[in-house]
Here is the input.
Amino acid sequence: MRIRWMLVPLFMLAGAGGALAAQCPELLRGDLPKLRAKEQVNLCEQFAGKPLVVVNTASYCGFAPQFEGLEAVYKEYQGQGLEMLGVPSNDFKQEAKDAAETAKVCYANYGVTFTMTEPQPVRGADATHLFRELAKQSNAPKWNFYKYVVDRQGKVVASFSSLTKPDDPQFRAAIEQAIASHP
Here is the structure.
């Protein structure tokens, strides 16, 4: 009898884990290695229920100065719950071969404070789960610094090409729409 009562809380905990997984949008299922850190970024834990901008980056791309604008947008909207995730990629052959160099470009050269991952594939069959889902909901990035605005439910509100600068009114309007969405 005593054992049965001890098992009930275990079953309840197991059920809660399944409920938490069910609440996590498909887009945010999985982990990515954090740039120059030993930890993993659990996408669901960190970003579920929050408005999010996802951008694929490259250290040696002509659009790399957009890091400054992205950081400014992040700081401006962070107090309203906005999260930002940068995912470096060498899919367009413009990323550093060494993660330490990638980190230097992001953190030292551009002062990035939003979450950055280790370089990941973002296109095709090798793309990470996150980018496969972004492509399903919108389209695959056509170049570096392709930007996705995701609402609190894990749905892509809008995507923007590399040519769209972070201070673009349409980009900002999409972010404000994502912030206004309710979980």
User: Anything to note?
Assistant: The chain has a mean pLDDT of 90. The CA atoms of residues 69 and 170 lie 14 Å apart.
